[in-house]
Write a structure and sequence with these properties.
By secondary structure, this protein is α/β, with parallel strands linked by helices. The chain has one domain: Rossmann fold (3-Layer(aba) Sandwich), CATH 3.40.50. About 35% of the residues lie in helices and about 20% in strands. The protein has eight helices and ten strands. The strands form two sheets. The protein has an eight-stranded mixed β-sheet, sandwiched between helices. Strands 3-4 form a two-stranded antiparallel ribbon. The longest helix is centred in the last third of the chain and has 28 residues. The protein is globular and about 55 Å long.
Length: about 270
């Protein structure tokens, strides 16, 4: 169910992908990449076939989280990339393609073109969900990505901070302007709760996500806490966070089902 702008130009490699979900954050540093990865793992755990694209060309972090390297990439028939299999999900990243360690300085059309090229050059085969970890911000890059990538829906990530809420408001307006459904809102770094304590510390403020969700009539999917000690570089491999992301994946599936039903309701039924 791609957005209307991209309906007529779906790359052949994406035609067997049932749902393409973009994870957006209007501000950098809110944990969008961790949310994208752990959501993908939650969907996989629920029995779906899942792919993950790290499309953040400016600061791709998924290869580090998944311990992936460019040497693992294989080319099929000299033109299609075979996505890596990491933790049971199909994975590709701009960080595995772009050469060198220096930050890439590209303009919006160049970035969106590179991302679309990556998507269309990867042999995804059949997928239930393809999660796209997008570059942060609300500028030309994000707008062009929204227009060119055949997204089914979006998820928005913020923190409770006032500046993040303010920027996220702009991001929501941008997404809605293009008639792309927003499944829900995620508030990351909501609070810090020490081990063996019931007290919560709201280090970045409180209620920002709730405020946005109420203002735009969105479901606040989750308020994800900071962790005191990481037993793993991947949150999903920690019991408390596995529960959070399993619940998040179920909410995403439920919202996608609702969107699909609404679309089917407005399509005229042919008479036998």
């Amino acid at each position: 169910m791609p957005n209307k702008e991209a309906t007529l130009r779906i790359p052949e490699t994406l035609r067997k992908v049932k749902n393409i979900i973009g994870v957006f954050s209007a501000k950098g540093g809110v944990g969008k990449s961790e949310v994208s990865l752990n959501l993908a793992l939650g969907l996989k755990e629920s029995g779906y076939t899942v792919g993950l694209v790290d499309a953040d060309i400016y600061g791709p972090s998924q290869p580090l989280l998944l311990n992936a390297s460019e040497e693992e990439i294989e080319v099929k028939n000299k033109k299609l990339l075979t996505p890596l299999n990491k933790k049971g999900i199909k994975f590709i990243s701009m960080g595995l393609i772009a050469k060198g360690a220096k930050p890439v300085i590209w303009r919006g059309p160049m970035v969106s073109g590179a991302v679309l090229q990556l998507l269309s050059s990867t042999d995804w085969q059949t997928l239930d969900y393809l999660i796209i970890d997008t570059p942060p911000g609300t500028g030309d890059v994000q707008l062009t990505l929204l227009q060119r990538i055949p997204l089914s829906a979006a998820i928005v990530v913020t923190t409770p901070q006032k500046v993040s809420v303010s920027d996220t408001r702009k991001g929501i307006e941008m997404i809605r302007r293009l008639d792309l459904p927003i499944l829900g809102l995620i508030e990351n770094m909501s609070f810090f709760q020490p081990e063996d304590s019931e007290k919560k510390y709201y280090l970045f403020g409180k209620g920002g996500g709730e405020e946005l969700a109420k203002e735009y009539k969105l479901e606040l999917f989750s308020q994800i806490p900071l962790t005191e000690k990481k037993d793993s570089s991947i949150l999903y491999e920690m019991d408390d966070y596995k529960i959070i992301f399993d619940d998040l994946s179920k909410k995403v599936v439920a919202q996608m089902d609702l969107i699909r039903k609404k679309i089917n309701q407005v399509i005229p039924q042919q008479k036998a």
